[in-house]
Amino acid sequence: MRSTFFALALLCSACGGAEEAATKTGDVNVTVASPATVARGSNTFTIRIDHPHATAVEATLWMPSMGHGAPYDPRAVKLDDTTYRLEDAMFSMPGAWDLRVKVTCPHGVSTQTFRYEVP
Hints:
The chain contains one helix and nine strands. It has one helix at 2-14, and strands at 18-25, 28-35, 41-50, 56-63, 68-69, 75-78, 83-91, 95-105, 108-118. With 119 residues, it is mainly β. Helix content is 11%, strand content 60%.
């Protein structure tokens, strides 16, 4: 399963590079691979969840300086037990955006935030 994630990361790096960030809340580790440069418009991310019992992954985009989110939430498509492709992450304007990843596990919900600067 890890090999799938790293293969995706290698594919992204072959096409101009990918940026990777990771956070941990409790026993839930979340790693997000983004395009080398996020851009206005639609973006695709790869999310890896290091928790054997994650049952759902959702994501939202939020622009703290403007107090609003994206026009719609991106869609998380499950690729395997630990890897998701986040499609249609729509950054509608330049500035700092938070990608909030919510992971549901049997013991509760973990939300982790990743900050991106959109040119």
